[in-house]
Every structure is written in structure tokens, then in C-alpha cells.
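ok here's NUDIX hydrolase:
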Amino acid sequence: MSLGLEPPQLLKKCLFYAGRKFDFEVNRLRLPNKVEGQWECIRHPGGAMAIPITPDGKLVLVRQYRFAVQGRLLEFPAGTIEREEDAFTTIQREIEEETGYRASEWTNLGKFPLAPGYSDEYIFAFLASDLEKLETAPAQDEDEDIEVVLMTPEEFEKAVLSGEGVDAKSIAGYFMAKPFLNK
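and the structure:
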């Protein structure tokens, strides 16, 4: 099912903050159903994620420290789409930087809104296969604290169901990729 666009009418922009990774707006709007009110929104350029799978069927994940939740989450490699970059270029760069793997086969799995209650961010998901381990160690960004983790699909599902701390985009991306994992 495709979402039809029904943009609200902007009545007044109350606050605007431009950040390093995203912007924050508080706007007075009239929704398509004629209700008026004030809504906050994070404006984000979008992100790209990969569900990497090794030739022997292991998923390549990262355990990454996330300051907002004050802990480490199990995630598939992902990153913010930079200016002048498309989602595919972003994830090709991110998978190498975060995991030290390069994929020669890619399947576009589609996109999904991450948190539409307060953000316009979409995540573009890709299955990355035919992986090659790079000779050099991952070149993680200075502000990243990442450990590479290999798991079978069964181990990943068990981690999700046990409440181990898997982020939502990784759960969604995994289930988008699952039909392709056993081929």
C-alpha cells in the first residue's frame, strides 16, 4: 500500500533549530481534516542500512553505544545520508567503515519511515551479500563506539525476542530481508 501525500497547511513556523545531523521545527499547522494545532518535527535527510550476510549464512551486526539510551544496542550497519549522496552510496561507505566488510551483491529491500510520530526520516534498506572481509580494520567515525558481531539468523531472532536490546530499524530491516536469506 502506498501512502498518499496529504500535506498540512503551514500557518506559522514557531521555532527552527539547525543541527549537525538533523533540524527541529515547531510549527502551527492545519491538517487535512481541518484540525489546527502545534506540532514538533525532526527533519532528517534519511538513512541507509544494510543487512549483511556472509557466505556461510552469518549476519554481520554491530553492537554500538547510543548515548540517548545510555547503553549498547545490537544493530545492522547504517548511516545518515550525507549531502550530495544517495542511499546506496551511503550504505556502501557505512558497511565498510563500521564492519570491515565489502559486499559485491546488493538487493534493494525498499524504505520505511523510522518514527513518523515526530520525524520525517526514512530508512532505505539493502541486503548485502557475497561479502569480502577487508584487509584493513574498520575506519569507524571518531564519535562511534562499535563492536562487530556475527550471528546466525536464529541467534538474531532469539536476541530480538529476549529483549537483548536490538534497535527497531534492525528488526524491521531483518524481516524485509528474511525471504532472501535462505535462498
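+1. The helical segments are 87-99, 153-161, 168-181.
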